Amino acid sequence: MRRVVYDPLKCTACKTCELQCSVAHSRSGDLLAAIFESPPPLPRLSVAWTPGVNVPVKCAHCETAPCLLGCPVGAIRREGKSDSVLIDEDRCIGCFSCVLLCPYGAVRLSFDRKRAYKCDGCADRISEGLEPACSFSCPTGALAWREVEEVAREKTALTAVRDAAALARGGEIAAGEGSPLGTILKMREEMARG
Amino acid sequence: MDKTNDRTVYANPGDIELTRKAADDNVELVADRLRKMMPECGFGELGTCCVMCYMGPCRIDPFGLGARTGVCGATPDVIVARNFLRSATGGAASHAGHARELAILLLEIAEGKAPGYKVREEGKLLSLAGKLGVPVDGRPVDAVAGDVARKALEDFGRQDGKPMNWIRARSSRIEYAKWEKLGLIVSNPHNEIETAMHRTSMGNDADPLNLWVATLRMGMVDNFAGLMLATDLSDIIFGIPTPKVVTANYSVLKEGEVNIACHGHNPILASKVAEWADRLEGEAKAAGAGRVNVVGICCIGNELVMRYGVPYAGHEAQTELFLATGAIDAMVVDMQCIMPSLPVIAKCYKTRFITTVPFVRHPEAIHVDFNTGAADERAQEIVRHGIAAYKERKAAGIRTRIPDVSSKALTGISVETLVSVLSTVDAKDPLKPVIDAIAAGEILGAVGMVGCPNPKLRDGAMTEKMAEGLLRNNVLIVTTGCVNHILAQGGFLTSEATERYAGPRLKKVLTAIGQAAGLGGPLPPVLHMGSCVDNSRIYDLLAALAGKLGVEISQLPVAGSAPEFITEKAISIGSFFLAAGILVHLAPAPRVFGSPFAVSLLTEKLPALNGGKVLVAATPEAAVSGILAHLREKRQALGLAQA
Ligand code: SF4
Ligand code: SF4
Ligand code: SF4
Ligand code: SF4
After folding, report:
1. How confident is the model at residue B2 (pLDDT cuts 50, 70, 90)?
2. B435-476 confidence digits (pLDDT tens)
3. Do residues B586 and B578 touch, judged by C-beta distance below 8 A?
4. pLDDT confidence bin for A187, thresholds 50/70/90
């Protein structure tokens, strides 16, 4: 199962992903023409920011999607082939339950503010054999089109490396101190710090 | 690296062969790096990325949801105009630097301080002196040369606000008056460059129109203080180009010879290297090589080929591939368009990479401090580097591969040459046959195809396909810069190209001229007018044609095209052609689309004001049809027959 995954530590907030998402959702599909379109195409993700980290926020296409489950008129559905959660803007009644239910804040209000819209997982691009525009365009790899299982495996491996390092540091501390309890507490502290 | 990479280049199997070799050798090429860069930053493409101060960097959301101005309040119109002016300034600074070096050299020659050089073209010196108001009668050549050089240097130092000597001496009255009315007459290139940098720094000029006028002025600096001054002085010092049939493409490299590739722009260094290559043949032989084979890449290729007939190697985008042949012993460069990747690749093949200009250096390069006072000594040193490398490389057994591809090309069509060729048809009025042919619609119009090879468009053979399309429609092409290399390698600079590509009407004219001039075939349909600075020759030619017809240049059925441009120099040259009222086709798109003001100025308001107009078209078909429509419009306005 592939998803666009993000790594906030790599994001420089250049916003290429936002720009290219807009282009991918324009009528012309070309930047130089898209900027003259009216209404302008909307980006479906946004680079959010908190001191020290940039987070490209977009729909995670959750397996048990709260937005989908909560939509009272069934305007949200899952598209089989691309595994994307899609909002049918024609059926959307603008109650914005999805906005309230989405844990990511990934649903937004369209220009006329009467409809909800969000990342469609680039279902069109995927059906053409392309990867989503945002991950494809991200120059730093902060967004990447990856197998989720593989990401999990990598994370597991990283955890092992991190904990091994912490244990080693804990060992150093133990060599200098007497009380076993103190050592264990220090090691826990180190491990939590990572 | 992706070894299945088969980026093809129109009619040049050598590029494909060497791209494969580079992949085998694990050498990364410009195309590989470009692929990793894609897609490039859209804010940059639109011109709405500003790094002029440290409240930024700022970028404007073109779709209107996010920031609409920079932190300082600069609108996208202001940001785009400032950025564009800065790139025109970068280009004009490059050309002005090139020209100033030549002015200083001419003064040194006059004062006897540059023993390796002399005035070769007295006739051109005297006629230029006449135009500049320098007395010539009965004076020694060096005294006149000194005064001409001082006139040039006076332009660079002028603080009295009076028009540049070169503009006064070298523009026609009708164009001068037009520029004066538009406020485009400049006084001192250095002042314009200073003011442009000043006004575009944070918190100065915030009037997009005022900034765009400054860009047109920068175009004037580029043409008169850069291109034209450089061409005039190069001709005086190195000779006026004359027609030469030469070999182009990879096969100019020779197995068993010391291959030295000159790359860069100013003939000051390369002409000396070429001279000493012959004189040190004995040393090369002693090292076991046949001789020293100097070849010219990029604009140096143009400068050397049109004056000395030096083998015409290839364009800027091929520099890495030339190194990948493994057959180059030394690559010596001066300035501009030298990719920083080169010295690194050179190292892989034990090629000595030699820089010669204080502000163009690289940690992996050998630096030879070239100066005009000791030109001969330094040139010898450089050639000896090549000979020493030859021995080393033989001993190391570097694998070489020189693709067996070559083409012939007729080069060196200066205005003087063209006039002399044409006077074989009509001695009294040489330009008449061309004007008659244009009037009768046999030549629909002329297009100057200039500039660089851009890897973004090389795949699609943008330049070759455009040339084909224009020729079929009876449009004559004149070229400068690396576009020449592309077209030479594509076989467009030959009589056969006239047979193969030219439309029937154009073919008839070129055949008649070719026969009258005794060329043994038609005149080629693409005329090689030189290097990038030689765009001034194209301007001179247009000025002469317009003068004969008694119209403005902007009324002629002509256009300029930089079909694959890369550099800021192309921006400044284009700015001049806009100032002169000529349609300029650009691909890739210039960085102006983020500004509605700029788009409407360049496509609607400027054409109404002085005829200048920007055409953006990234496919050969769109470019050709846009240009043809423009030529037809101009013909109609002049009441000429519609071909
Ligand atoms: S393109 Fe990548 S680095 Fe740039 S803002 Fe988006 S996620 Fe961040
Ligand atoms: S909109 Fe929110 S809740 Fe719905 S699938 Fe996307 S991330 Fe999950
Ligand atoms: S997956 Fe497609 S629609 Fe979703 S944020 Fe990325 S580019 Fe936009
Ligand atoms: S000059 Fe203005 S637009 Fe440019 S970086 Fe500074 S604040 Fe931003």
Report:
1. very low
2. 999 999 999 999 999 999 999 999 889 999 999 999 999 999
3. no
4. confident
Six token digits for residue B227: 């291109």
Q: Give the neighbor-by-neighbor strand order of the sheet with B445-449.
A: B526-528, B475-479, B445-449, B558-562, B583-586, B613-616
State how far the Cα of A120 lies from the Cα of B355, in Å rounded to an integer. 53
Q: Map tokens 């909560």 to a residue.
A: A70
Percent of chain B with pLDDT over 90: 93
User: Dihedral of CA B9/B482/B606/B193: which sign?
Assistant: positive
Position A184 scores a pLDDT of 73
Strands (E), B350-442: 352-355, 366-367, 407-411
Is A43–B46 a contact, with Cβ atoms under 8 angstroms apart? no
CA distance B483 to B564: 8
B34-46 pLDDT tens trace: 999 888 899 999 9
Chain B interface, best mutation among A17, A19, A130, by max B CB count within 10 A? A19
Q: Dig out the tokens for B460 from the structure.
A: 């699609």
Task: Point out the ligand nearest to the CA of residue B52.
Answer: 4
The mean per-residue pLDDT over the stretch A88-105 comes to 95
Pairing outcome for strands B49-50 and B58-59? antiparallel
Amino acid at B415: V
**Measured between CA atoms, how close is A41 to chain B, in angstroms?**
7
Q: Which residues of A touch B61 (CB under 8 A)?
A: 18
Chain A residues in contact with B39 by the CB 8 A cut-off are 16, 20, 136-137
Does the C-beta of A85 come closer than 6 Å to ligand 2? yes
Report, as an integer, the average pLDDT of B251-269: 97
**How distant is the Cα of A106 from the closest Cα of chain B, in angstroms?**
16
Give the confidence band of B8 by pLDDT, cuts at 50, 70, 90: very low
* Contact between residue B209 and residue B176 where contact means Cβ atoms under 8 Å apart: no
Pocket lining: A55 vs ligand 1, CB cutoff 6 Å? no
Which residues in chain B are contacts of A16 at CB distance < 8 A? 39, 41-43
pLDDT of B571 > 50? The answer is yes
Tell me the nearest-neighbour CA distance from A32 into chain B, angstroms. Answer: 7
pLDDT band at residue B3 using 50, 70 and 90 as cut-offs: very low
A18, A25, A35: best to mutate for the B interface, most B CBs within 10 A: A35
| Residue of A21, A63, A66, A72 whose CA lies nearest to A46 | A21
Q: Is A149 exposed, middle or buried (0-12, 13-18, 19+ CB in 10 A)?
A: exposed
Strand partners, B477: B447, B526
Asked whether A122 and A24 are in contact (CB, 8 A), the reply is: yes
Ligand 2 mean position, distance from CA A65 (Å) = 5
Instruction: Locate all alpha helices (DSSP H) within chain A, ordered by sequence.
Output: 16-24, 31-34, 66-70, 97-101, 123-127, 133-137, 148-176, 180-193
Percentage of residues in chain B having pLDDT higher than 70 = 98
Q: Which residues contact B167 (CB under 8 A, 6 or more apart)?
A: B176, B179, B185, B186, B220, B224
Nearest to A20 among B37, B39, B594 (CB): B39
> Over 50: is that where the pLDDT of B5 sits?
no
The string of pLDDT tens digits covering residues A36-72 is 999 999 999 999 998 889 999 999 999 999 999 999 9
Distance from the A78 Cα atom to the nearest Cα atom in chain B, whole angstroms? 28
Ligand 1 centroid to A23 CA: how many Å? 15
User: pLDDT value at position A113?
Assistant: 82
The residue whose two tokens read 């690749």 is B345
With CB atoms and an 8 Å threshold, state whether B589 touches A40: no
Å from CA of A143 to ligand 3 middle = 10
Cα–Cα distance measured from residue A36 to residue A34, given in angstroms and rounded to the nearest whole number: 5
Calculate the average pLDDT of chain B. 95
Contact A62 CB / ligand 2 (< 6 Å): yes
